[in-house]
Amino acid sequence: MIKKYDIVIIGAGLGGLQCGAILSNKGFSVCVLEKNRFIGGTLQTFPRRGCDFSTGMHYIGSLDKGQMLHRIFKYFKLFDGIEYKRLNDDGFEIFNIAGKEYKYAQGFDAWRSQMHHYFPADKKAIDKYIARIKATVDAQDIYVLKEPGNDAVQNKDYLKVNAFREIQSLTTNKELQNVLGALNFVYAGDKETTPFYVHALINNYFINSSYRVVGKSDQVANALADTIQKNGGEVLTGKKASQFVFEGDKMVALETADGERFYAGDFISNVHPAATMDMLATGRIKKSFRNRMNKLPSTHSAFGLHLNLKKDSVKYFNYNYQYFKHGDVWFASAYNEKKWPEHYFLHTSPLTGNDEYVSCVGLLTHMRFEEVEQWAQLPINNRGKDYEAWKQEKSEKMIELVGQQFPEIKENIVAHTASTPLTYRDYIGTHDGSMYGTSRDYRNPMGSYVSPRTKIPNLYFTGQNLNLHGMLGVSLSSLLTCGEFVSLRELINEINNA
Ligand SMILES: Cc1cc2nc3c(=O)[nH]c(=O)nc-3n(C[C@H](O)[C@H](O)[C@H](O)COP(=O)(O)OP(=O)(O)OC[C@H]3O[C@@H](n4cnc5c(N)ncnc54)[C@H](O)[C@@H]3O)c2cc1C
Questions:
Q1: In the chain, N or C terminus with fewer CB closer than 10 Å?
Q2: Residue 201 shares a structural domain with residue 238
Q3: Domain final residue pick, 175, 207, 239
Q4: Does residue 166 sit within a domain?
């Protein structure tokens, strides 16, 4: 007998699981299919010699009571059994820019005072900057948990402002410009293309408040999967979606790589739109739509280094640390691989929330896919000696750089593991290992816009490729996608009243 669901969801990343939880809460029968052995996508952690390293969820913002993510987490019951640790009030992020350190304090009042203290001659520019951030966030209904109006994308002027130039227009002080732009790694900022609204959303999100998940970040994925299962839904691993099946003109099922068919009324794809197009035979979707999805610009990929340290040798850091070798925090737009690495983002995970020492430390920095392209066709875990030697050389360079600020880290490394753009490609399923999926371009807001609706009436998109990446961006995409099935107004009300 053929089993048929209301909705089949491809990908058990944050977006797929949240859609599954919302829609199963609303009584739909859902089935989430995940290609990997474990669910979570970039929420996954992976074990290495006693450490559980987080793939892509190192900290989250706006989690103070009443703030955006707090309301969303309450709705999803993500405070039940999961602990979060608040990062340092006076510096959740420390930036070392060309040898000088600056801290970002939590809460806009504290952040403003700290910036005034660093730049006493630029108080007006700092206040103007905060006002611009607030106005830009408030202009985007969904980011303040309001039902979005019907304005066409092309009429939204805030989409057409460049982040780097907007900051430049507020102050001529280059040092201040750098400090204001210094979080750009966490949105893969590009000098030439990144819109100011992306910058505003992310800075607002983390400055409001910043936290880490205590222990493994995949607890969030497991809690969402539990909700789906308690609601009678299914979450299946080892199920790689390979092609959509049609009866006449109607899409009726999804076939996985092992030949199993999952029938449903509707389908939601939590994977990259281009990867979704690969599941549709020629002629099944408008050529122009397919071409646009295939050409969506991507954010950079990354090189990650995961360090196991000697027990009780390095004190726990209750903050992230970002190092920029030179006085240009937007250098990634044109980084030079010969000079690599010129930046790193250092993060640690609290094991219990009260740990005095840390034995697992992660480093991340930009890397373009082209650097690994020569090994792209070789099988996982067997890419040859050249690739291993290249990884080792890159790892040593990163360790050398971090050792300049943190000799105690360099001296106490007992083992290290590297992730390259190929690792991100293979585990997440993006074509080019892009860190945060599709990128936005202020010069062409329509070209980089992805709607939850596709040109097939019962196929929808969700996840980081829609609006914005990260815990907040993906959560909001989930609301927009589910708003295609249930009343968005009601859903937003439920979240605001959770
Ligand atoms: C290195 C890194 C660091 C990051 N740090 C942070 C951070 O500190 N804070 C933050 O908020 N965000 C961070 N992010 C971003 C955040 O992790 C992501 O934006 C978010 O988790 C993406 O969720 P998603 O559901 O859209 O996609 P994904 O997590 O990519 O989920 C997609 C899922 O689909 C599965 N899949 C793919 N193809 C198929 C197929 N054919 N069939 C079935 N399943 C398939 C994948 O295996 C995956 O599980 C980071 C990301 C990276 C890469």
A1: N
A2: no
A3: 207
A4: yes
Tell me if 372 is assigned to some domain. no
Q: How far is the CA of 251 from the centre of ligand 1 (A)?
A: 26
SS3 for the chain, per residue? CCCEEEEEEECCEHHHHHHHHHHHHCCCCEEEECCCCCCEHHHCEEEECCEEEECCCCCEECCCCCCHHHHHHHHCCCCCCCCEEECCCCCCEEEEECCEEEEECCCHHHHHHHHHHHCHHHHHHHHHHHHHHHHHHHCCHHHHCCCCCCCCHHHCHHHHCEHHHHHHHHCCCHHHHHHHHHHHHHHCCCCCCCEHHHHHHHHHHHHHCEEEECCCCHHHHHHHHHHHHHCCCEEECCCCEEEEEEECCEEEEEEECCCCEEEEEEEEECCCHHHHHCCCCCCCCCHHHHHHHHCCCECCEEEEEEEEECCCCCECCCCEEEEECCCCCCHHHHCCCCCCCCEEEEEECCCCCCCCECCEEEEEEEECHHHHHHHCCCCCCCCHHHHHHHHHHHHHHHHHHHHHHCHHHHHCEEEEEEECHHHHHHHHCCCCCCCCCECCCCCCCCCCCCCCECCCCCEEECCCCCCCCHHHHHHHHHHHHHCCCCCHHHHHHHHHCC
How does the average pLDDT of the chain come out, rounded? 94
Mean pLDDT, range 169-194, rounded to an integer:
96
Give the chain's domain count. Answer: 2
CATH for 268: 3.50.50.60
Whole-prediction pTM: 0.96
- Taking residues 18-22, report their average pLDDT: 98
* Full residue range of the structural domain in which residue 268 is found: 4-46+63-83+216-296+443-496
78, 220: one domain: yes
Q: Range with the lowest mean pLDDT among 1-5, 222-226, 259-263, 264-268?
A: 1-5
Name residues contacting ligand 1 (CB within 6 A): 10-16, 33-36, 41-43, 56-60, 240-241, 270-271, 275, 302, 304, 364, 424, 428-429, 435-436, 463-464, 469-471, 474
Is the residue at 114 inside a domain?
Answer: yes
Whether 337 shows a pLDDT value over 90: the answer reads no
The answer to whether residues 79 and 225 belong to one domain is yes
Q: Residues 125, 186: one domain?
A: yes
